[in-house]
Structure formats: C-alpha cells, structure tokens
C-alpha cells in the first residue's frame, strides 16, 4: 500500500526574518510495506512542534549547527525534523507495533520513516491531550523546568524576571516560579499579552517592552530591590538591562536569544563589571543536557496540571500546509504559548 506524504522544506537558506516564500510544500509517494530486515517504523504524524531554534538550522551558517545533534544544518529541499507525537502505521521494529502512540523526532510532514536508532519512544498520555506531550510535557516544559530549577536554583521569595514570558518556555518558568512562592514579572509584546500574564497565569506584574524606550529604567521600576533570577529568552538589549539590575549572586539562565536570530549585528553586550562584582552566574543550556531530570519534571508538572496550579497555554494550527505560517508568525510575536501544528486528528 502507498500513501502520498506531504511535507515542508525550505527553498533556500534563510539568513534574515523568515518569509512564507522561503518554504515549499512538497509531496512524494510512500510505501507502507517495509523490508522485514529494515528495523524501521513508519509514523503518521499527529502533532509537531514549532520552535525558534529551527531558524538557526536553516541559515547558511550558524555556530549552533556544530554544537548539537539536534541543531544540525538543514539543506534546502530536504525534509525537516522536529519533535512531535504520532501513531505507528507500520513497523518492523520489535519495540513498536501498529497503533502505538509515540513521541520523538518526527518530520514537518504527514508521515515519518524512523530509521534504526532514531529518537522514538512509546507514549503514555496519562490522561492528558496528546498536544501537551509536544509542549508543556515535552521539551518546552523540560527546558523551563531544568533552566529554572537546576541552573537558577530558586528560593521562595526571590525576585524573578522572565523575558518572552508568554512564549512556550517563558510562561512555564513564570508559573513554576509562582508555585514556588517567588515574585515574578514578565515582559511581552502587547497589552493583551500583559493582561494574560497577570490574569490567567498569575504573574505579579508584566509590561509591554514595545512601550518602554529605556529598558534599564523599566526594570528598576519593576524591581526596585533588584533581580535575583533572570530567565533569558531574547538576548540583546533586554539581557543588558537585566544584568544592570541583577542582585549580588544573581543567576541568569540563557535559554534563547530570539532577538539576535534575525539580526547579525544585534549582540548583547552586558556589563562585565556588573557580572564580576555582583558575582552573577550566566549559563546557557539545552534541554537535552537534562534528560536525566525528565522523570522528576514529568511527575511534578503532571501534579501541577491536575491540581490546576499551572495552566497549559497552547497555540495550535491545523494542517501540514500551515507550518510555514506557524514559524513565520513566531518571529512576528503572534503566538501565545506553545506553537504546535496538528497534522492529523487523533
């Protein structure tokens, strides 16, 4: 039996802000009959993750492409891998059977052929929607959990600042911090998003960075006693302003620098005098560094979801053809929470 597999690829390397014209929807025939000796699995993709880091993979060059197996360069015309959830439709791998729900490294397409050794695991939904396992119970959630608890080592009552606070990671960091008993302020890009942070997610305060010409003074206003923890998703001017307002022994987890992904000239230049004399810890990290924490993260986050101490925040588009728009809109600040594309109904 054969099916038509539609998938997304890039037409060219993308070294600036991504545009719809950079992408192409292609299709090819895919046989669902596997060689018995292949050890392969064919997955019907149900949900796939849309993440800003993918843009660095699409560039003609980024230093990140040599730093992680999950960040390798994407060649124009090739299919694109991403974290996702799907259902097995054919298998010659003894670990997987037809009908199994799985999570792992899939493709931005309707089907994925997973080779031996590919990142794929059976998934127990634990009573939650499958989409949660792409975001809040997936790598976005682990990123928030590991960055906040392992790198920042928070204490109850500390003052926490989160940039891109309504993004897939930032919203969870803020919620974890509130559950712990921290004072939390987030920044985002519109009045509507500010209201969501305070009214839906329980942030103590929030501001629209587009309305703040002097970020250093803004942070002084929101943190008159200084910042203990800064969870950085944007880099650039915001990182500089945060460093200037950090307390002694402050901690900064650098999760992303989205403001720098589309502008080669934009680079954060924080005061190293402040870093030295305030003994500020600044650490970059990847979720893959903390897979050993996945069990603890999953247990904790599931408990918080069941008790409604944290709220899931998802932004779901439908159909493989919506993938380019989903990524483009991330860089226009149009997502609210975790951006996911639903490829097919469960």
The Cα radius of gyration reads 21 Å
Shape descriptor reads globular
| CATH classification class of the largest domain | Alpha Beta
Give unreliable regions as ranges: none
What's the total helix number?
10
Q: Assign the CATH superfamily of the largest domain.
A: Medium-chain alcohol dehydrogenases, catalytic domain
* Overall domain count: 2
Largest sheet: 7 strands, mixed
Secondary-structure element pattern, one letter each: EEEHEEEEHEHEHEHEHEHHEHEHE
User: Under the CATH scheme, which architecture of the largest domain would be assigned?
Assistant: Alpha-Beta Complex
CATH topology group of the largest domain: Quinone Oxidoreductase, Chain A, domain 1
Structural class: alpha/beta
Mean pLDDT: 96
- Beta fraction of the residues? 25-35%
